[in-house]
Amino acid sequence: xxxxxxxxxxxxxxxxxxxxxxxxxxxxxxxxxxxxxxxxxxxxxxxxxxxxxxxxxxxxxxxxxxxxxxxxxxxxxxxxxxxxxxxxxxxxxxxxxxxxxxxxxxxxxxxxxxxxxxxxxxxxxxxxxxxxxxxxxxxxxxxxxxxxxxxxxxxxxxxxxxxxxxxxxxxxxxxxxxxxxxxxxxxxxxxxxxxxxxxxxxxxxxxxxxxxxxxxxxxxxxxxxxxxxxxxxxxxxxxxxxxxxxxxxxxxxxxxxxxxxxxxxxxxxxxxxxxxxxxxxxxxxxxxxxxxxxxxxxxxxxxxxxxxxxxxxxxxxxxxxxxxxxxxxxxxxxxxxxxxxxxxxxxxxxxxxxxxxxxxxxxxxxxxxxxxx
Length: 373
Fold this sequence. Notes:
Layout: H1 2-5, H2 19-24, H3 41-66, H4 76-83, H5 85-98, H6 103-120, E1 139-141, E2 157-162, H7 173-188, H8 193-199, E3 249-254, H9 266-279, E4 284-290, H10 296-303, H11 309-312, E5 315-318, H12 325-334
Parallel strand pairs: 2-3, 3-4, 4-5
Antiparallel strand pairs: 1-2
Helix pairs in contact: 3-5, 3-6, 4-5, 5-6, 7-9
């Protein structure tokens, strides 16, 4: 299946195999579209029209949130949109681009997301949801040293996903969806825990203290992680994420030890994809797929109809052959924002829950001059 499908897919990119190809990609990856500071006159005009249409939508949502029963923390998206014109425009631009520039469709989608947020009580989802064992949430949000916040194409927050940690037999769907929401809210909207508590809003509470005897953020990892954690105990200690207000994120998706039978649940994956791309549109940077077996193509074929063209173009398949994983990541993600444990130059602690034994492919000495950011 994979072999017959592969030649038909233009977005399965081979690694560069010539000096000219390497030269063309010699800088860190940036988004193809400008951020709100550098819009074309036509897109700026459309955004201004959307802002006018969205004003009453945001006001109605804020009024409804204030009288919600039972009471919920103030909505972090609404708070960000009200904080400044730039924050508001950043939000609205995501919906405008997702709607292909159609202002009316963007306004409808925004209103639908606000209704979903109120019904789902998104701001009440705790930040620690990513650490719940039966969520088997495989993504780790890395620290500020790995950020690329530059307007006009920055890759935003950097995440690492150990995809073998998702366990089909163990996952509880509601817990995983909470984890996805908590991660997205922490990346895009939430204030730091102390600020959120002072303001009386947000659910970005400080994570519990590390478990007795467990590793802290700067200590070696707990091998295995995932569903193998002791029942009733958090499987890892996630650094505080709120307050960075990233416009997007870049993720390195590591398939080491991944199995199509053990680590795939298509109905759950479809629900996660729908949630993210519907309610957090145009928030993705590039997806780097590394260390993948051929069997991943068959799974991808089943999921790709859910992905738009703007998403597909940011999927970067990085084969272990040819140039290799580390040189590509150092060049495109940027060695200056890539942790040493992923082959970069940043002293970012290895997250608790990531097994250092699975990272051998990244421990390759960089070639001279390769991947300088």
